[in-house]
Amino acid sequence: MPFAFDHCRITRKAPTRRAGNDPKEEKMTRRILLSAGLAALAGLLTVAETAPALAQARAFVSNERDHTVSVVDVDSLKLIETIKTGRRPRGITASPDGKLVYVCASDDNRVEVYDSKTYKLVKTLRSGPDPELFVLAPSGNPLYIANEDDSMVTAVNTENNELVAEIPVGVEPEGMGVSPDGRYLVNTSETTNMAHVIDTTTNEVIENVLVDSRPRYAQFNHDGTQLWVSSEVGGTVAVIDPKNGWKIIKKISFEIPGVNKDAIQPVGIRITKDGSTAFIALGPANHVAVVDTKTLEVKKYLLVGQRVWQLGFTPDEKQIFSTNGNSNDISVIDVASEKVLKSVPVGRLPWGVVIVP
Amino acid sequence: MTRIAPETPVPITSLTRLRQMPRPALAFAALSAALLASPLAVLPAEAAAPAGSLWPCIQPRVQTLAAGQMWDGPSIDNNLAWRDDAQVAELVPVIVARRTTIEDATARIETFATAAGPQKNARLTLLFAGAFDQINSLRARILTGIERYAQHQIDLSNRIKDESLRFAQAKKTATTDEARAKLADIEQQVVWDTRIYDSRTQAMSAVCESPVILEQRAFALARAIRGLMD
Question: Residue A321 belongs to what domain range?
Answer without folding.
Answer: 56-356
